[in-house]
Amino acid sequence: LQLRHTSCPRIITSKVHSSGDVSEASIDRNETKTFGFLSNSTEEAQIQCKLEQKQQKNKEIQPPTLLPQIQILLNMFPSFPKKMLCPLLYRYDGNCLEVYNFLVSRDWIPASEHGKDLLQGTKDMHYATPYYHGQVQDKECVEQILKDSNPGTYLTCYQQQDPGFLYYLYYKNNNGSLVAKPVKVPVVPEVLKVILELDK
User: Fold this and answer.
1) DSSP bridge partners of 183
2) How far, in Å, are 62, 64, 160, 166, 185 from residue 163 at the CA level?
3) What is the pLDDT, as a whole number, of residue 12?
4) Could you tell me which residues come within 8 angstroms of residue 107 by beta carbon, excluding any fewer than 6 positions away?
5) How many angstroms separate the Cα of 105 from the Cα of each of 9, 72, 101, 102, 197?
6) What is the DSSP letter of 77?
7) CA 140 to chain centre
8) Which helix (H) or strand (E) holds 68?
9) Digits of tens for pLDDT over the chain (200 positions)?
10) Under a CB-based contact definition with an 8 Å cutoff, are residues 155 and 146 in contact?
11) pTM of the model
């Protein structure tokens, strides 16, 4: 009796006597075709692995581009008090190029011009979004903020997660319950506002 072409990968072929003893096993390294329930299992496993990697990458949120720009400003103006930089960022909605221009107009001399071309002359969504609240510790904190709010009221924030952080949309649904949804950015798209009936 010779076993071949079973529902296992066709890599090993065995010659078996009628008594059931294996007398010889040979490996066919050129044969890679599979049969039965294992057919395409390697390809499926690779596809599944790629999908999981893509899903994990989609969950990871990149640090805001504002952070390296703030560091550039700090490097350019090392003698400028750090605590004074925050009010300027608020005044100019996170536009670091405007902050740079303001400092120069007030006779602050940059230690170096290195990195000036990396300063973006646009508002940053973290400052320009009125319903973004920055860091919030947990859902209980948001419940305190929205406790007297009507259904449809919402805010966005971020919470520290190991190893990084996640943005969240918190909103009160039609029943008045607080709902949390992880989101990619602190700005809520208009279509999502309509679907969730926010700001009715």
Assistant:
1) 167
2) 12, 15, 8, 10, 18
3) 37
4) none
5) 74, 18, 6, 5, 46
6) -
7) 23
8) helix 66-76
9) 444 444 434 333 444 444 444 444 444 444 445 555 555 566 776 777 676 666 555 555 677 788 899 999 999 999 999 999 999 999 999 999 999 999 999 999 999 988 899 998 999 999 999 999 999 988 999 999 999 999 999 999 999 877 788 999 999 999 999 999 999 999 999 999 999 999 85
10) yes
11) 0.62
The size of the chain, in residues, is 200
Residue type, 136: V
* Whole-number pLDDT of residue 173: 93
Contact 18, 33 (CB under 8 A): no
Displacement of CA 110 from its chain's centroid (Å): 34
**110 cis-preceded (ω within 30 degrees of 0):** no
C-alpha distances (whole Å) from 34 to each of 6, 9, 22, 133, 176 are 9, 4, 22, 56, 56
| Tokens standing for residue 33 | 């075709």
Q: Which two structure tokens, joined as six digits, stand for 24? A: 């010889």
Residues 6+ apart with CB under 8 A from 40: 34
Question: Domains of the chain by range and CATH?
Answer: 2-44 (no CATH), 66-126 (no CATH), 130-195 (3.30.505.10)
Cβ–Cβ < 8 Å for 139, 180: yes
Gap between the terminal Cα atoms of the chain:
77
Q: Specify the pLDDT at position 13.
A: 40
Question: What pLDDT is recorded for position 91?
Answer: 96
